[in-house]
Design goal:
Order of helices and strands: HEEHEEHEHEEEHEH
Strand content: 25-35%
Number of strands: 9
Shape: globular
Helix content: 10-25%
Radius of gyration: 17 Å
Amino acid sequence: MKKGQRLLEALLRKDHISGFNRPFSAYDFSETSILVLSNLHETIPYREAVLKDLKAYADICVDVHKKIGFTRWRPDYRIRDDKGDLFPGIKIKDKQKYLKLEDIQSGTLREAGFATEYIRTLIGINNAYEIRIESPNHNTVQGLAKMFIDRTNSLSLEPWPDDYDIPVIFLLGAETMPDFLPVTMYQQRRRRDSLNFVQKKLAQEIEKQLEGNGFEKAYCLANSLFVERCCNQ
């Protein structure tokens, strides 16, 4: 395991961060107006529904990038889709082993009877992707951000299939946006991929560790629900 990933897994288990990504395409922090939709899981029906809706916009550039996500697990996180099938490419591990998810028929670990204290020690790992959208039109970006928040929500009138309660949406190159809060993105560029995560604040000694491991940082915005539930305050 690479040193940067070992560092992030340690921060994850110690509750300094709630998750991190290993995308196979790094961000260029000098670019502006990039809107990213990145969930814990992304099924094919989910991706197709999102991309279908994006076709209505003529002034955007859309790219889909593969990633591996690492997340500190929560009792309400889903492991199965709307049809009851396991989300593809998902694994959950404690400090010693991977759970046998195929033996768990419930939609969440809480429903399966696992103790909350144990669930919070777990790390979820999934093969997924993120949708990156670039546009020079601020109104377009703002409208898309609002649509993402609404339709990636099980309470929406028209949710995307296999939606999730906590969408991860962030903006690079924007100073303010309704329902978004300021955070910092940390990124380590590597030869074949990169590592990144967002957080509101980190202790100075952790900042120095990240800097010593080649992490750069940029200020950005993230949807308020994600920040309130998954970032320190």
